[in-house]
Amino acid sequence: MNNYVFQNIELVIFDMDGTIFDTERLGFKGWQHAFAYFDYDVPIEILKKKIGLNSKDSKNLIQQYMGSDFDYTSIKEEKRNFVRNYIDINGTPIKSGIISVLDLLDLLGIKKAIATSRGHTMANYYIDKSNLRDRFDLIVTGDMVNKGKPNPDIFLKTSEILNVSNDKCLVIEDSPNGIEAGKRACMTTIMIPDLIKPNSILMKKVDYLFDSLNDLL
């Protein structure tokens, strides 16, 4: 049992895609579909760099590679339709162990929040399709802060709203950008890798590394 990680913690802040929901892979497939639909070839490594970025930074990353005149809006809309079609039929896929972890945090009296780089429209769509909205005290989306991950703004805003000091906050993330943001916010970090495995540099910034949310029980 590894629930010792919650000792002296008053707030657990979850990333959303790839941490609570198994949507990184779905989104990844959506981007691949959209680029292929418009007959573009974008390397997988470029798509991986998007993970954890907000909408503005994702757009900048793609346009740096494809050129400023690249029609990002049409690509993004095709990707969004791909993802929505899946979720409308199947619901938002959740990560193994998330329900049990939320139950444990309720038992321990620890607050729970989501801090996602995704904008409020799609974030709320994902959450509503998962039936998990009432399990969280707060949801903060990427368009509620000026700077996205790896800047700490979204985590700092979350702790401020819930009135919890940063040293009493625990961030659970799957991406390097999220871990960097958590450390810059002076919060304890847990990484549960999804599509990106931590390298030696990132490992120095991670307080705890687990394979699955189930490892926290």
From TrEMBL:
Spell out the InterPro entries in the cross-references: HAD-like_sf, HAD-SF_hydro_IA, HAD_2, HAD_sf, PGP-like_dom2
| The species this protein was found in | Carnobacterium maltaromaticum LMA28
Q: Does the keyword Hydrolase apply?
A: yes
Name a Pfam family for this protein: HAD_2
Q: From which domain of life does this come?
A: Bacteria
Please state what the protein is called.
HAD-superhydrolase, subIA, variant 3 family protein
Q: Which Gene3D superfamilies match?
A: HAD superfamily/HAD-like (3.40.50.1000), Putative phosphatase, domain 2 (1.10.150.240)
**Keywords assigned by UniProt, alphabetized:** Hydrolase
What's one GO MF term for it?
A: hydrolase activity
UniProt EC number: 3.1.3.-
